[in-house]
Automatic annotation (TrEMBL):
It comes from the Bacteria. Aminotransferase that catalyzes the conversion of aromatic amino acids and 2-oxoglutarate into corresponding aromatic oxo acids and L-glutamate. This is Aromatic amino acid aminotransferase. The lineage of its organism: Bacteria, Bacillati, Actinomycetota, Actinomycetes, Kitasatosporales. Its cofactor is pyridoxal 5'-phosphate. Signal peptide: none annotated. It catalyses: an aromatic L-alpha-amino acid + 2-oxoglutarate = an aromatic oxo-acid + L-glutamate. The gene is pat. It holds the Pfam family Aminotran_1_2. It comes from Streptomyces longwoodensis.
Amino acid sequence: MSETNPKLRAELEGIPTYKPGKPAAAGGPAAYKLSSNENPYPPLPGVLESVTAAAESFNRYPDMACTGLMNELSDRFGVPLSHLATGTGSVGVAQQLIQATAGPGDEVVYAWRSFEAYPIITQISGATSVRVPLTPGDVHDLDAMAAAITDRTRLVFVCNPNNPTGTVVRREELERFLDRVPADCLVVLDEAYREFIRDPEVPDGVELYRERPNVCVLRTFSKAYGLAGLRVGFAIAHEPVAAALRKTAVPFGVSQLAQEAAIASLRAEDELLGRVGSLVCERTRVSDALRAQGWTVPESQANFVWLRLGERTVDFAAACEQAGVVVRPFAGEGVRVTIGEAEANDIFLKVTEAFH
Ligand code: PMP
């Protein structure tokens, strides 16, 4: 009955809820999940131990300030504590960033297609999304993005590498773009897949942040570090932005288990980055195999590949599932396929061979 319903903000009307990557069917035919860009390796024993130790006191709230992790990050990146903020996954930090910067009447600019959370968190804030189409080669069109910025633009997301295409923007074009962005507009470099980049021309966002007060870098422990289920991400940003992020944080939003696992992962970085190296080799193998089969695939610098399939997208995803791998379809456009275990990648390649 409408008169008993509480008043909800009109902006929330029609916002889609998050669509998680479809899980693999336990014991079923679709055994491998290649739909959420997760890390296929199981947790390192040392990381698991740190989580188990932290679990002994989960009757207590976590350290709200994430002191240990913040100190580790400060040392690791050579940034002051006042320039750091942690959050419930980097999507949580992205949501805080919008909450802190944009509201009704403001605009948020991002490429499209890109990370599916951007339109959702923008709409939740009441701000307006300005989507700038990728080039025909599936790369950010930074000239068009610069041209889309108005005096209402508060935030620009640059997803580098871009989800779901895996494509990157390189130093020269990114610097040229940043030169054109007004000083009062925040540019968020979303580097969720940073550790998978092998192209030397792609700049490290942290270097750009050091030179520019309106640049903020988003990173996550979900991908290269393999902690997707623990929900911890962070931002490196200049003081007013980082301070706003600390204000808008969900209290106790990063569990002690997540904090300890993130610290242990930073300390086990060499081993984890070795695993990333193996996944990058698999990415090359999969991309080469797809091209040898006759597919056109954009050069991915992330832990997934993008296959344009147009109207055949949904059928292709169903064929993958039938064969034993779950992929992520974007109906009418294409599928994003995570680089997983070699066996899983082989199954995917069998489907692409039959489908082409
Ligand atoms: N940014 C991008 C580009 C992503 O693809 C993802 C995860 N799919 C995230 C941010 C969020 O990751 P998390 O919240 O797990 O840190």
